[in-house]
Amino acid sequence: MPTDLVKARIMTVMRNLPPLPAVTRQLLEVMRNEDSSADDVTKVLSGDGMLAGKVLKLVNSSFYGVPTEVTTISRAVVILGFTGIRNLALGFGTVEALSGMGSKSDMTGYWSHAMATAAAAQALAPFVNRRTDPEEAFIAGLMHDIGAYVLASSVPESYAEILKFPASERLQKELDETGFTHAKIGQGLLKFWELPDAFSNAARFHHDIDIAAGGDQPLTNLVALADILACIHGGDFETDASETDLTRLRSAAGLKPEHICSALDTMEQKIEDMAEFMKISGAGAAQSKVENSVPAMTCVVVTTDEARKNLVSCLLNHLGHETYPMESYFNQEPGSSDIGLVLVDPQSLNRDQLDRLAVYLGDQPTNMGVLVEKETTIPDSMTSWPTLNFVFGGKQLASIMKLQPA
Fold first, then answer.
1. pTM, whole model, 2 decimals?
2. pLDDT tens across 306-319, in order?
3. Which end of the chain is flanked by fewer CB atoms within 10 Å, N or C?
4. 277 with 138: CB under 8 angstroms?
5. CB pairs under 8 A, 24+ apart, for 257-262?
């Protein structure tokens, strides 16, 4: 399809995008009014039986863990507060509006990633240095790739071809083929819905590390981090996430490395809780963690950089693998013969150490890999080894296992 025609179809869809449901818009309007009370919110919410029923069902689910059953909308408003009700309405309204677009594409992957990003953003929110409501973070994560849904609905044939390319190339392919990226389209949709700028900015700039780590857009920063954690949890990276990027984003948010590991540890349960949310919304329960095709194994991380060792160990543990101390491995202590993978950080060792290490590992019955950043120089003795970025998920780990010599 000619690019001009693709652009015309997208512009037509953008001009005719469905608005948020009336009750959602009414709630947003009421909540913008500083004089509004809980009774005003209850009145609007009670006027839509379907949404009221969804809110009651959700507030009584494991997602919120309320100790006693909530049977009235007024009580739900008290428990959830204005922000909680607004975010629930936005979540339900977003799914309803997107469903109304009638996409012919299989959007299971879209919802899986959206849910994982929402879970990660919610898990990180309590620890950031600029107060962010966890429910607001959840909704921002849920909507961050909303432009992709518009593309899939407006130009399904072209978008299907774009999805055949590696995830890291899709942003550029979107721009080349349609004149837009899903990030730009997402910003346009959320502005059309008159949502707060923080939401539209998060959709627009979550792939722009310089802006996300700049300190002026805390919700964008949080969503950018959550997007990376969602890709670690399962899926493909749309941009090459590096250790440097992750550190910049984490530092800008005032997060410690242990907060990243904690978020990864709690994501699975949060995604399971959210499955009920998505089912109520009519989107269906999306997949959570992408099935890891690498059987559980014991790994060794060879590095003298403690921060890098902790990061890689955290990711391996999240993916279901154990780590074994480097010193114990080289000393051939009990358990060292069971090592399934050795990952080497060449930036932390000198050339002589690397060459001797390559000879030593070449005599061991184990799989090997080199941990790399964009600027990493791989020694000649290891150029035949598979490489793995410091920020990786199960799919990337599986790919280097397939490249091991017979």
1. 0.86
2. 999 999 999 999 99
3. C
4. no
5. 257/307, 257/310, 257/311, 257/314, 259/124, 259/127, 260/124, 260/225, 260/229, 260/311, 260/314, 261/314, 261/317, 261/318, 262/123
Give the model confidence (pLDDT) of 341-389 as tens digits: 999 999 999 999 999 999 999 888 899 999 998 888 899 999 999 999 9
Q: Are residues 283 and 318 in the same domain?
A: no
Where does 28-126 show beta strands of DSSP type E?
none
Residue 235, C-beta contacts closer than 8 angstroms, at least 6 positions apart: 109, 112, 113, 116, 167, 290, 393, 395
Tokens in use for 82?
């204005």
CA distance 75 to 254: 35
Of 33, 67, 100, the residue at which a domain comes to its end is 100
Which residues are 388's β-sheet partners? 371
Q: 112 and 91, same structural domain? A: no
**How many whole angstroms separate alpha carbon 177 and alpha carbon 158?**
8
Q: How far apart are CA 181 and CA 175, in angstroms?
A: 5
Same domain, 199 and 147: yes
User: What token pair was written down for 263?
Assistant: 């978020």
C-alpha 249/C-alpha 237 separation (Å) is 16
- CB < 8 Å & 24+ apart, contacts of 195-204: 195/28, 195/90, 198/136, 198/140, 199/139, 199/140, 199/143, 202/140, 202/143, 202/144, 203/143, 203/144, 203/145, 203/146, 203/147
Helix axes 134-143, 108-124, angle to 10 degrees: 160
Rounded Cα distance, 118 and 124, in Å: 10
Q: Do 253 and 129 contact (CB within 8 A), yes or no? A: yes
Q: Report whether 287 contacts 312 (CB < 8 A).
A: no
Domain span at residue 128 reads 1-14+102-290
Contact at 8 Å (CB) between 387 and 378? yes
pLDDT for residue 51: 82
